């Protein structure tokens, strides 16, 4: 069992952020020791790390809440639950990820243009400085 401080160290989230995620329903409230101190399992830490990856993808907290509404579906399926039980949830996840994939592809194109422009400028500036040295 881990305290909120230990979870914070392992995930990089502040205790405030972890409590906020609990408050808005992105995370379920953990069990408490003596009714006060939050205690987390390894499974909950893995779940938080999954949330962090979804956030890095650019999903909003609302989308993450929707995405994770049924918990870790893959774990449940691996433990023997029927895939058919999660078909609606899987379709929602596909829809959310496809939307973000389109956005990421657009950002990639923008970045490739910016990289190309930066490389052109570097080449130009290097040429100019070489010309200056020769003169």
TrEMBL record:
Keywords assigned by UniProt, alphabetized: Coiled coil, DNA-binding, Repressor, Transcription, Transcription regulation
Top-level taxon in the UniProt lineage: Bacteria
PANTHER family, per database record: MERR-FAMILY TRANSCRIPTIONAL REGULATOR, REDOX-CYCLING DRUG-SENSING TRANSCRIPTIONAL ACTIVATOR SOXR
Domain HTH merR-type: 1-70
Coiled coil: 94-121
Cross-referenced InterPro entries: DNA-bd_dom_put_sf, MerR-type_HTH_dom, MerR_fam
SMART domains: HTH_MERR
Transmembrane parts of this sequence: none
Protein name listed in UniProt: MerR family transcriptional regulator
């Amino acid at each position: 069992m881990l305290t909120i401080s230990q979870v914070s160290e392992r995930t990089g989230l502040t205790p405030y952020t972890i409590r906020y995620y609990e408050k808005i329903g992105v995370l379920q409230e953990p069990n408490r020791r003596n009714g006060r101190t939050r205690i987390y399992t390894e499974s909950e830490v893995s779940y938080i790390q999954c949330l962090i990856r979804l956030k890095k993808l650019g999903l909003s907290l609302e989308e993450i809440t929707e995405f994770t509404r049924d918990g870790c579906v893959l774990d449940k399926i691996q433990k023997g639950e029927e895939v058919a039980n999660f078909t609606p949830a899987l379709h929602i996840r596909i829809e959310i990820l496809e939307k973000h994939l389109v956005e990421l592809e657009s950002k990639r194109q923008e970045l490739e243009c910016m990289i190309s422009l930066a490389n052109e400028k570097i080449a130009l500036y290097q040429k100019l400085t070489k010309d200056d040295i020769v003169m």
